[in-house]
Amino acid sequence: xxxxxxxxxxxxxxxxxxxxxxxxxxxxxxxxxxxxxxxxxxxxxxxxxxxxxxxxxxxxxxxxxxxxxxxxxxxxxxxxxxxxxxxxxxxxxxxxxxxxxxxxxxxxxxxxxxxxxxxxxxxxxxxxxxxxxxxxxxxxxxxxxxxxxxxxxxxxxxxxxxxxxxxxxxxxxxxxxxxxxxxxxxxxxxxxxxxxxxxxxxxxxxxxxxxxxxxxxxxxxxxxxxxxxxxxxxxxxxxxxxxxxxxxxxxxxxxxxxxxxxxxxxxxxxxxxxxxxxxxxxxxxxxxxxxxxxxxxxxxxxxxxxxxxxxxxxxxxxxxxxxxxxxxxxxxxxxxxxxxxxxxxxxxxxxxxxxxxxxxxxxxxxxxxxxxxxxxxx
Length: 378
Description:
Blueprint: H1 14-18, H2 22-40, H3 52-62, H4 67-80, H5 84-89, H6 92-99, H7 106-122, H8 130-134, H9 141-152, H10 161-171, H11 180-198, H12 205-219, H13 238-241, E1 258-269, E2 272-277, E3 288-289, E4 292-295, H14 302-310, E5 314-327, E6 330-341, E7 353-355, H15 357-361, H16 367-376
Parallel strand pairs: 1-6
Antiparallel strand pairs: 1-2, 1-4, 2-3, 2-7, 5-6
């Protein structure tokens, strides 16, 4: 069939007139995001500096943690350890105490490992090279991109949970972002606007562009009840136009929650309490806690289990409190019991020691056990 004999083209649907290629959409997004960030961004303390050390600490603290929680921790940390060398030389007790309550304590140990690597390999100066940043312990692709762009205005992409949510909605990406092909597609999409911004030669455009994407996901394009009318790029959003905002990102089904139950024992002798430090290589390593053990959902004989699991012959006195908390997919119930020791401690009682309330308050406890300590030594 010749071109002259082709049937007339069908008129474009209304939705098609609003669509555009990813490249064109990216071009349209950049000025709107930068303008919005200039007047709509939150005034956060780490945004008042270009110090890569300060920005690095904030990014590590913000992993799995809300901004409002991080602010006082970051300010206290920067006051106590203002330079990389201060962190490298700090004692484990100091860094764990500064981190107490933030959780995911591997982060703080990796911070110190990385600071010592910077002292050894980079003369104490945080490296500007993106690959050198990636080589530091505890720093992955996202964190390296964030530090490079925010501190040094380098055109490195970022892709955290907030940016994933923004991009999947803007571009209508319905496949799971955790899948390798989708994840790489999102990284490419995240790279396009920052490369375009870098071409402007602005001293802060890459920093502000990446932060605008994170900020948009944090305060406007939120997981639930996003504020679409206030979004600076709403007219480019495929999910909004197609009514799929609440369906994206498609993260798949959550793993079912698992209930776990623990019993802890508060044992006092002449003004001293029995505590222990968690060993290296376990969850919450190096933090302090009261002697405790996992128990079944039924009502066990705590005295028998304490003798077997902890090597302690106890007389249970009374229940002190019940603390419920969540770690990843685990829903944990911690029962704290006042108890007395019926016989002398065995030497093999797993590093247990007696300390005064004043000594305990100077140590870093796990969050749940800190609540127990607050009950007995506020």
